[in-house]
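User: What would this chain look like folded?
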Amino acid sequence: MMTVDLKTASRAKRLGEATHETHEALDRRIMAAASFADIAGYGRFVEAQYLFHRDIDALYDDAALGDLLPGLAARRRLPLIAADLEDLELAPPYADPPAFLPDLAPDVPMALGWLYVAEGSNLGAAILRKEAAKLGLSDTYGARHLAPTPEGPAAHWRAFTAGLDAVEMTADEEARAAAGAEAAFARVRHHVEARLG
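Assistant: Here's the prediction, encoded as structure tokens.
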């Protein structure tokens, strides 16, 4: 992997560098679980996705975050994942209370780290979408949450990172954003272990 010059890199690249090992380990774990080998495995993957997006759903309605990241509410994927579960005839899984609760203002830098992880997963969705298609699933049945946005995943990501990079932060806030991204990856790993076995 090419090393990022942390002094000149964008915030998104710094977060990527800080979480690279955690992210890679999570990707390997998901693929090792053969989540796309059959519909049952895919269903367990969607359940894990549901739980993570349930964790962060309240962030998409937060006014302070919406001011920093224009169009944030439209990036919400929980309803798409819920529809995918319904297609698969699976009930939304029960779990502990979500990581972020409605009407409770989040620590903004931490929340930005969590959103970085959620939005970054859209980039990998293109590969997973092809695997889901092999199972007979599509952008309108069972794999809605993997479908690209109209502008495409790269443009969607660039718009998000432009907003993320524009947020002014102190060194302490930068550290909290990185901690938030690590916590988000850890939460995804928790759901993966619980659902994929």
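The mean pLDDT is 91. If you want, I can go into more detail on any region.
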